[in-house]
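pasting for the record
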Amino acid sequence: MHVLIVEDDPTLSKNISDALAAEGMTTSVVYDGLLAERLLDRERFDCIILDINLPSKTGYDLCRDFRSRNTVTPVIMLTAFSDLDDKVKGFDCGADDYLTKPFFMRELILRINSLVKRTRSAGELADSDTVKADDIIIHTKQKKVMRDGQEIELTPREYQILLLLTRRKGEVISKSELIKEIWGTSFNTNTNTIEVYVNFLRNKIDKPFDKKTIKTKIGYGYYIDVV
């Protein structure tokens, strides 16, 4: 497993690198946001450990730009802040998980293994390049969503929610399961984040086409309704 560590604190970077190496992982360490971006353009990694406060380019901006090209590789954000708004911003930029400094190295290792395992499992399940529900067509390799011949621009999180609902069309998925599958177990489930994203999706996927494909089963969750 190859992990990229983007952290400008040399002591913390070394501690993380040593801990991961002890688990048999290969690491690359970068201290600058722009340098990390160039490396991400050249190499593939199994997981990215990303600090928020970086020289040249912040972790938020780096993650957002990376997600425009890659929606698969897991990203774990590190920050000195624990405020929920900061976490929401990080997740909205495309992060999969979040750790507040200081943290236990064992916890970081467990989260890396969990995210990489989940990503690989999802890749094995995605044996088709095209996922369909009603007249919604998702081209998974291009991360492109079409409806009625029109391409619909979605954020990485909107895309992930729609893809999960579409792959399990007709099945009711609870808010807590959506959060676990898409944001990871560290996200506070006592928020209306999922409701907000589903509303965004409906405004892009359903409303312009006078459809009501994404439905709510009150008290249970959301599902794609196909006739």
